[in-house]
Recover the amino acids of this structure.
């Protein structure tokens, strides 16, 4: 039997989708907060959200989120390689998301490098990195939404 | 400023010297030329400035071809809180930064050695060493160049004005009705293009001096490799018992001011407001990014360690179960 696994039975299996969902929400919100739109479109006028117009604060949140994301990526990748690989396999939709996520992470790493004091990229490269970070993020969000509606998970149980 | 020298009379002569396209411009000092790898910084010796505004006029003249030519009427923008920034009918304004005035002369009446004196000095983009305007531009329009210039590409900028919000001195200035946003969603996103001093990057590329430096009759400004400029600034400060601004501000900039009076005093005395930056002590805006970047290197390792830890625990559990059978 092949079954798409959206919720695992182990402790991490239950916690991971939650953690991932919250993290994705935080990264999307703080990421959109890097565009000058929250003030224009009244988001920061919503009571309790005035802070969302502070670019430095949302930037800090985005960085902290990226730290959690990288730790999670390290954990999930090695957990899969060391053990889970025998029980589960990546679905097609999981593979698409993984590729888009890799795009976000790689361009994100370059953005972090660009922000270091001694790193200067060429104007063309800076443009490509900045715009592709946005592009991968948009593509990921659309893909994640589509797969959510279609009920496709990241992994499926292997049949023995 | 008229107590100093006749500004207009002076301007005529000096502008003729600059020339419109800078063909007749003085070359960059040889030590600054061929320094493609290193950052160039400018030294501004406040004592020398006579407030003639020759630099302001020269900047306008040589950079005129880069100034906005907005199309009118402007597209209606939504929501209605989005305000038009239109300087096209006020191009002659020189007492603040605007999209058509990238340099202005600031005045501070202070006591120098017990005597009241009006000091004047040029103000423009500081060309930060780690510029938040460029780092945080979400669109790649603002960039730092290897030679220490921070430049906003007017073909790419959408005029969202984030660079002005994150700049500690709020330097870049917006003009509505120009740029890429007109070809995208002009009603819903963007609002023109941001403009500021580009330290005459095109003249520097050709080996010429920035126009404001070139034209100054008092040689108030100097450009050279940053280490040398910083050294010189300290030498002058030592000689005159003076003060330095821009070396450490915002984590370090490529514009180093030397003054005979403390910058706190100048900061109190200057007129501040939109397009009129102060001289506050500015902390490194990007320090958080440097610190958190270090944690980013450790994060995946911590994640891998947790996975390996879990694996060993599981293996121990399995072998324990087997031994117990
Ligand atoms: S910097 Fe030079 S050109 Fe500019 S106002 Fe001062 S003296 Fe005049
Ligand atoms: S002074 Fe402002 S506009 Fe100029 S480089 Fe620094 S942050 Fe950017
Ligand atoms: S360096 Fe060039 S662009 Fe900047 S203020 Fe001077 S003349 Fe203007």
């Amino acid at each position: 039997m092949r079954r798409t696994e959206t919720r695992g039975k182990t402790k991490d299996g239950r916690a991971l989708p939650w953690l991932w969902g919250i993290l994705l929400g935080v990264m999307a919100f703080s990421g959109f907060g890097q565009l000058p739109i929250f003030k224009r479109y009244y988001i920061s006028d919503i009571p309790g959200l005035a802070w969302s117009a502070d670019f430095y604060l949302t930037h800090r949140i985005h960085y902290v989120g990226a730290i959690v994301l990288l730790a999670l990526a390290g954990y999930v990748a090695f957990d899969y390689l060391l053990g889970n690989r025998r029980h589960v396999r990546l679905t097609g939709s999981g593979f698409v998301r993984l590729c888009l996520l890799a795009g976000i992470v790689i361009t994100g790493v370059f953005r972090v490098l660009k922000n270091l004091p001694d790193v200067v990229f060429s104007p063309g490269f800076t443009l490509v990195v900045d715009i592709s970070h946005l592009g991968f993020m948009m593509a990921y969000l659309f893909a994640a939404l589509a797969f959510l509606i279609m009920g496709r998970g990241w992994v499926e149980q292997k049949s023995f | 400023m008229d107590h100093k020298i006749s500004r207009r009379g002076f301007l005529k002569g000096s502008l003729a010297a600059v020339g419109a396209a800078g063909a007749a411009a003085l070359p960059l000092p040889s030590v600054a030329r061929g320094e493609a790898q290193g950052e160039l910084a400018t030294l501004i010796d406040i004592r020398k400035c006579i407030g003639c505004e020759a630099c302001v006029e020269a900047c306008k003249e040589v950079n005129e071809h880069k100034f906005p030519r907005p199309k009118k009427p402007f597209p209606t923008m939504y929501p209605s809180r989005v305000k038009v920034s239109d300087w096209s009918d006020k191009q002659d304004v020189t007492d603040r930064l605007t999209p058509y005035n990238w340099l202005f002369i600031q005045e501070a009446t202070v006591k120098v050695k017990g005597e009241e004196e009006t000091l004047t000095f040029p103000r423009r983009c500081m060309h930060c060493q780690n510029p938040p305007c460029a780092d945080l531009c979400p669109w790649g329009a603002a960039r730092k160049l290897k030679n220490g210039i921070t430049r906003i590409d007017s073909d790419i900028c959408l005029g969202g004005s984030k660079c002005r919000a994150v700049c500690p001195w709020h330097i870049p200035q917006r003009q509505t009705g120009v740029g890429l946003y007109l070809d995208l969603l002009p009603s819903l996103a963007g609002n023109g293009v941001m403009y500021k001093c580009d330290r005459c990057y095109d003249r520097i590329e050709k080996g010429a001096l920035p126009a404001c430096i070139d034209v100054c009759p008092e040689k108030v400004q100097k450009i050279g490799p940053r280490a040398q400029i910083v050294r010189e600034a300290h030498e002058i400060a030592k000689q005159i018992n003076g003060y330095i601004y821009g070396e450490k501000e915002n984590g370090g900039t490529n514009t180093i001011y030397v003054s005979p009076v403390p910058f706190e005093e100048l900061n109190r005395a200057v007129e501040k407001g939109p397009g009129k930056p102060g001289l506050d002590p500015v902390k490194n805006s990007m320090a958080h990014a440097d610190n958190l970047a270090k944690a980013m290197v450790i994060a995946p390792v911590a994640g891998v360690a947790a996975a390996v830890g879990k694996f060993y625990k599981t293996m121990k559990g399995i072998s324990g179960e087997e031994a117990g059978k």
Q: What stands out?
A: Chain A touches chain B through 47 residues (CB under 8 Å).
